[in-house]
Design goal:
Layout: E1 2-8, H1 17-30, E2 33-39, H2 45-53, E3 59-64, H3 66-76, E4 84-89, H4 95-99, H5 106-115, E5 117-126, E6 130-132, E7 135-139, H6 144-147, H7 150-156, H8 159-167, E8 175-181, E9 184-196, E10 200-201, E11 204-205, E12 219-225, H9 230-242, E13 250-255, E14 257-270, E15 273-294
Parallel strand pairs: 1-2, 1-3, 3-4
Antiparallel strand pairs: 5-6, 5-15, 7-9, 7-14, 8-9, 8-14, 9-12, 10-11, 12-13, 14-15
Length: about 300
């Protein structure tokens, strides 16, 4: 009999997994799986469960948001041989599920676990002690994801991030940074930066670039210089969301390895969770490290 580890975050998103859990378990059991279920109790619990029991399973399934998925993959990265990964998204934004075209409805996503095709994805290694799946970011608005309460996320969903973002418009802070990649060096005052491997960021598709491959060994990097005037900030926002003329304040490039240093500690966010306050950051792309089951209809 095939063995499954099913890791569930019951508080993620609007807690819809609670009402569907028995139905999902019945579906997996009917498909011939012997299921070990783990309900997360605290932060990092999902990572510990994946690392502890994942090795002996044929399939690890994660139900939760982007942060829960990050934990499960982080735990699987500690294994000598990672099993297949299935994902039932139940968070507030579910950016990575959108990139893989995994269904948003619980039962459709559960069926995708059984019927989907294995797809190799890159994993980001952050400062040698952390991992991320789709985004590592600093600066303006990044604190929204981990400072917005879970209750507010559950109540308002994606709108919660937008509400908190509007509050932070008047408190932009810049950081003097040195960015190095592939023999290139860039030194500027930045208000925001993100290293991504995703089509969707914060619920918005195409924010970094229109052409993204999740298994090409490279990240898409976006950096925003400190605007001098409110008009400059307005132009940046227009460029980011409306795709107007190229903007001198926005830098974009691709790289598999990036080093970023600053003169003061900078807070980072990894897949929506706090990633630490760092003076020096080194990010490495681990190509095709995890196999995830994605939509069978996805090309």
């Amino acid at each position: 009999m095939k063995k499954m580890l099913f890791i569930v975050n019951p508080k993620s998103g609007r807690e819809q997994i609670r009402s569907k859990l028995l139905e999902v378990l019945d579906l997996f059991s009917a498909a011939g799986y012997e299921i070990q279920i783990h309900i997360t109790q605290r932060q990092k619990d999902a990572a510990e469960a994946a690392a502890r029991w994942g090795q002996e399973k044929d399939l690890v399934v994660c139900s939760g948001g982007d942060g829960t998925l990050n934990e499960v993959i982080s735990g699987m990265m500690e294994l000598p041989r990672a099993p297949l990964l299935g994902y039932i998204p139940s968070g507030s934004t579910n950016d990575y599920a959108s990139s893989l075209e995994i269904p948003k409805q619980t039962m459709d996503a559960a069926r995708n676990v059984l019927e989907g095709q294995p797809f190799p994805i890159d994993v980001g290694k952050f400062c040698k002690d952390r991992y991320f799946v789709y985004i590592a970011a600093f600066g303006a608005f990044t604190e929204i994801s981990y400072q917005t309460s879970q209750d507010k996320k559950n109540l308002l969903g994606h709108q919660a991030y937008m509400l908190e973002g509007v509050k932070g418009l008047g408190a932009l802070k810049s950081h003097r940074m040195k960015v190095e990649w592939d023999g290139n060096v860039l030194e500027e005052e930045f208000i925001f930066g993100m290293v991504t491997n995703t089509i969707s960021v914060g619920g918005f598709k195409g924010l970094v670039t229109q052409s993204v491959a999740l298994n090409d060994g490279e990240f898409e990097v976006l950096l925003i210089r400190n605007p001098r005037t409110p008009r400059d900030l307005s132009n940046i926002i227009s460029y980011m969301f409306l795709k107007e003329e190229p903007n001198d304040y926005v830098f974009k490039f691709r790289a598999g390895h990036i080093r970023i240093t600053s003169k003061e500690p900078v807070d980072w966010v990894l897949d929506g969770e706090f990633g630490g306050s760092r003076l020096e950051v080194e990010v490495e792309n681990l190509k095709e490290r995890i196999q995830i089951l994605h939509s069978a209809e996805r090309p």
